[in-house]
Design brief:
Blueprint: H1 9-33, H2 40-49, H3 64-83, H4 85-88, H5 92-119, H6 124-135, H7 138-145, H8 150-166, H9 169-182, H10 190-196, H11 203-228, H12 233-241, H13 246-253, H14 256-266, H15 270-276, H16 281-288, H17 293-309, H18 312-316, H19 320-333
Helix pairs in contact: 1-5, 1-6, 1-7, 2-3, 3-5, 5-6, 5-7, 5-8, 5-19, 6-19, 8-9, 9-11, 13-17, 15-19, 16-19
Length: 347
C-alpha cells in the first residue's frame, strides 16, 4: 500500500479483525479466571457500572467505560437468564460487558496504530508486526480481560498521535472531549494536542473545545459529588497526593523489579528497539530520522504518568504509539532486519 494512500474498507476490516483476534484469544482466560477479591480497581469499576459511585476518588469520575459496559451487560443478562439462570444474578453479565467493550476498543487501537506506522513511513506488514507486539503485551491481556478503563485512555493516546500526523481534526476532537473522562491525567497530554495539533485543528477551535471539555468534566464531577454527598475538594486533594509517589517511583524504576516491569511491557519485542540502536550511527539514522517531536514528547508524558502513579509497567504501556512506530520502522529499515525484505545482511 502506498504511504499516503487511503486504505480500503477491506483492509481496515481485516486489520481490525486481526487485532480483535489477538486480544480476545489471549484475554479470555484472564476474563474467566481472574480473582477480583484483591483488586480495588476492578471492584470500583464494577460498582460504578451498577450506578454506585461511592468508590475510591481516584476512579470515581471515569464514567464512560463502566457506562458502556452496563449498556452491553443488560441484553447479555437477558440471555444469561435463559441459558444460565444462576449466572444472571451475578456479576458475569457485567464482567462480559467490560470484556467486550475493552476488547473492541483495544482492537480499534490496533487499527489506528497500524495506520499511524504507515503514515510514518513503515510498510504494511512491518506495521502489522508492530501492532502484534502491542496487542500481545501482558498489559493488553489485563486491559481487555478485566473490568478496567485503560482501553479508552490508550485509544486517546493512539488517536492523539494519529490525529497530529494525519492532520485529522476528528481524532483531536475526540481526544479533547473524551480524554478528561478517560483519566484525569489527560491534563498532561493536552499540551501535546495544543502545540502539535494546530495543522489539524486551529488554535481558536482547540481553545473552544478545551473550554467545553472542561465544563463538561466539571459538570460530571459535580453531579457525582452531589449524588454521593462529598466535598469537591476531595478530588483535588487526591490529585495533589499523587506527587508523593514521585520519589517512590524513581527508586522503583531503577530497581531490578522496576527494570523487569519496564522490559515486560512489550516483552521480547523490546529487543527490536535494542537492535535498532546497534550498528552505528548510519544504521540508527535509517529509522530515527522518520521520528518526530510528538513521539518523543509522548514518551515524556508517559514518564510523568509513571512517576505520579508508581504503577510503572501499566503506565509504560501508554507508550504503545511511539513503540509501534519505532518497531515498524526498525523492522523495515535497519540493516539487521534486512532479511525480512529478502536482502542479505552484509558487513
Amino acid at each position: 500500500m502506498p504511504l499516503n494512500s487511503t486504505p480500503n474498507l477491506r483492509t481496515l476490516v481485516c486489520v481490525y479483525l486481526f487485532s480483535l483476534g489477538l486480544i480476545i484469544g489471549s484475554a479470555y482466560t484472564m476474563y474467566v479466571h481472574f480473582d477480583f477479591s484483591h483488586s480495588v480497581d476492578t471492584k470500583s469499576y464494577l460498582k460504578m457500572a451498577q450506578g454506585d459511585f461511592n468508590v475510591t476518588v481516584t476512579h470515581r469520575y471515569r464514567v464512560i467505560i463502566p457506562a458502556l459496559a452496563a449498556a452491553v451487560a443488560w441484553p447479555l443478562e437477558q440471555i444469561y437468564t435463559g441459558i444460565w439462570p444462576a449466572r444472571a444474578e451475578t456479576l458475569w453479565p457485567l464482567r462480559l460487558g467490560f470484556f467486550l467493550v475493552n476488547s473492541t476498543l483495544l482492537a480499534l487501537v490496533g487499527l489506528i496504530l497500524c495506520r499511524t506506522c504507515q503514515l510514518y513511513g513503515a510498510t504494511f506488514w512491518s506495521s502489522v508486526i508492530a501492532i502484534t507486539a502491542v496487542l500481545t503485551s501482558r498489559w493488553a491481556v489485563y486491559t481487555a480481560g478485566l473490568p478496567l478503563i485503560d482501553s479508552l485512555y490508550l485509544l486517546v493516546f493512539a488517536l492523539a498521535i494519529y490525529g497530529i500526523k494525519a492532520r485529522s481534526k476528528w481524532a483531536l476532537v475526540f481526544c479533547i472531549l473524551i480524554g478528561p473522562h478517560a483519566k484525569e491525567s489527560f491534563i498532561f497530554l493536552a499540551p501535546l494536542l495544543f502545540f502539535f495539533g494546530k495543522n489539524a485543528l486551529s488554535r481558536p477551535w482547540q481553545v473552544l473545545l478545551f473550554v467545553a471539555s472542561a465544563i463538561l468534566a466539571y459538570s460530571v464531577r459535580y453531579l457525582i459529588d452531589q449524588q454521593i454527598q462529598v466535598e469537591q475538594t476531595q478530588s483535588i486533594n487526591n490529585a495533589l497526593n499523587h506527587f508523593n509517589n514521585i520519589l517512590i517511583s524513581i527508586r522503583r524504576v531503577f530497581s531490578p523489579k522496576g527494570i523487569g516491569e519496564v522490559f515486560s511491557v512489550f516483552g521480547i519485542f523490546t529487543l527490536v528497539i535494542f537492535a535498532g540502536l546497534l550498528g552505528g550511527k548510519a544504521a540508527r539514522q535509517t529509522w530515527l530520522r522518520n521520528l518526530d517531536a510528538p513521539l518523543f514528547w509522548l514518551l515524556v508524558i508517559v514518564l510523568i504518568h509513571a512517576l505520579l502513579s508508581s504503577d510503572i509497567g501499566r503506565m509504560s504501556y501508554l507508550s504503545a504509539p511511539a513503540f509501534a512506530v519505532a518497531c515498524a520502522l526498525i523492522l523495515d529499515r535497519h540493516p539487521f532486519f534486512s532479511f525480512l525484505s529478502g536482502k542479505e545482511i552484509t558487513g
